[in-house]
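Students often ask what a holo structure prediction actually looks like on paper. The answer is less mysterious than it sounds. You provide the chain, you provide the ligand, and the output is a string of discrete structure tokens encoding the 3D arrangement of the protein together with adenosine-5'-triphosphate.
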Amino acid sequence: MLKALSGLVDTGNIRTLDYQFARFLTSLYDHDLLTLVGALVSHQLGHGNVCLKLDSLDITHLFGCKDAESRQLIEKSGVAPDAWLDTLKAIPLITDGSSASPLVLQDNRLYLRRYWLYEKAVSDWLANSQNTPVNLSGMHETLSRLFTRSYPFIRKQLTSLVADDIRPQLIKWLDIEKPEQIDWEAVAAAIQADHWQTLDHLIPESTCLNWQKVAAAVAAMRRFTVISGGPGTGKTTTVTRLLALLVEQGIAQGKVPDIRLVAPTGKAAARLTESIGNARSQLNCSEAVQNSIPTMASTLHRLLGVIPNQPGFKHNRQNRLHLDILVVDEASMVDLPLMARLLEALPDHARLILLGDRDQLSSVEAGSVLGDICSFASEGYSPDQCEQLQQLTGFDLSPFQQANGSSLRDSLCLLRKSYRFDAHSGIGQLASAVNSGNPLQVNALTNSNYSDITLHTQGEKDYPYLMTLALEGYRAYLNEIVQQGSPETIIAAFNQFRVLCAVREGRYGVAGLNLAISQTLASAGLIRTDAPWYAGRPILITRNDHSLGLYNGDIGITLPDGVGRLRVAFEMPDRSIRTFLPSRLPEHETVFAMTIHKSQGSEFDHTVIVLPDQAGPVLTRELVYTGITRAKKQLDLFACQPILEQAICRATVRDSGLAARLATL
Ligand SMILES: Nc1ncnc2c1ncn2[C@@H]1O[C@H](COP(=O)(O)OP(=O)(O)OP(=O)(O)O)[C@@H](O)[C@H]1O
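The corresponding structure tokens follow.
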């Protein structure tokens, strides 16, 4: 078996690591099936799966091999697939987790012990977080004040004041659920007379359902909450109002809570710093409360305290974090091991609020914790939760009530309406069409006349156009450098535009496009490429360097320092700028084009997405959705129709046992 596996390393089907793990197991207990499943579990982890699901294993394509090769491996194992489970149970290196064994078998799922422990830690913490009694008194009034309707905002959204036209727009922006109960003539008259405040009575809360307010109420009642929503649905706005509520409660009880804000990457933390600052300034609360909400976010790694060259963190079960409330943004990027370590480091009383978009790509490393948790959102709310939410918000939540389900569903809230993309935006509609996995709808949208989305094929004439877009897109920041703009302005100008790819290799991959774009910019005299380092070279860090505070995924721009040297300027999570000599940087590459994976946590006014001209396993619905939702104002998508369709139809499934564990809560 080991020989066969070694052959699979040579053909690139498995990693050396997978082979080495299988060899290690074999050295402890020589059994061909153990050797095979050991390599399989490790191989699964390499593909983001926390475990090997024995009951849904595709035995015709083990390790992605062809049918015949796969069957040979099974033959070599000496055990027919339907007898695997019983055989594995009898192998001493595999237990149910109650004793220290390298592999754990639970309900047809085979784990590396470490990952089984991570999964158990996360599910145990979530189970404990469910029973926290919370004092609800006074919360109704505070929520009403913090979530007062923004009539100036709604006024701006109305395209006309004609009675028939305003109805659908008011339904949308006031989240009206029961339009039949409203006197629309009186509403139109109030708006004509500019008496907006009268709408408080004409359109009472009981006819509406504002999910942002519901989300804040859910989070106020529980120790653990997830607020999930697509771009611009108001996750930051909602959490900021929630924090104001919690601070007010804390002040009333004599202690201002210690709040910390984090995100998985430096870029995402910098964005959170920016957006929480904006949201805080719009709060309907006292200045003292506003000032108690932090505006600086940091990275999760910084919060936990990295110990150089060690997998553990300074803060852990023995040395807990000092905080009362933790907000984690872009939580879809947090993998299972990191989530487990974060949870064990939280003090027992702390509240945890996860923000993220459950439809985005899962974390690079194993697991899809946010997706697994959010899978319970379809179970509605328990009757008790509906009643409490109704008391707190004034909304009728009975349509979302379901008698049975995991208690975790009462910790979840989905925000559904984008305040960033209006009805005329193709980007928002394309994102939701991709998300619903409907290629016909996607085709219709890409062929329609939305001014903010353009679909390009990948014919010969399209490549030069792609280069023209890149030239125009990157011209602004390069001009800023010539005009000696500040690093902040230059970085901001660079972040307006980005070319995103699905793959690394090939003409339509990161490598090919970085080269082609560099050459195009050089031909236009915007950069020089006769030396490896030049003013304007954008740099993507590809390996963490904790001592420098630079992390995989951070992006900097090479700039002249005024005394003839080049330094690379990075925006840090607190939005300050730090510069480094090129020679000091950890592993890095040029980044005119980057993968969609690496772009998670960032947004660009104008985004160009380039899909490869060949189908492949990386092309998934979540990848395309994540790429599209990086665009704020303009999206150009270079893709052959069949490749795009295939991607949209392929939803990622990550194997884990977390959802199964949480279902029993
Ligand atoms: N209820 C609301 N009324 C008016 N404007 C709102 C409301 N909620 C959010 N917005 C506005 O919509 C924009 C996006 O909001 P916010 O940043 O909170 O969303 P988000 O979901 O955190 O976005 P992102 O996808 O960037 O993380 C902001 O300009 C915000 O002021």
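The first strand starts at residue 52 and ends at 53.
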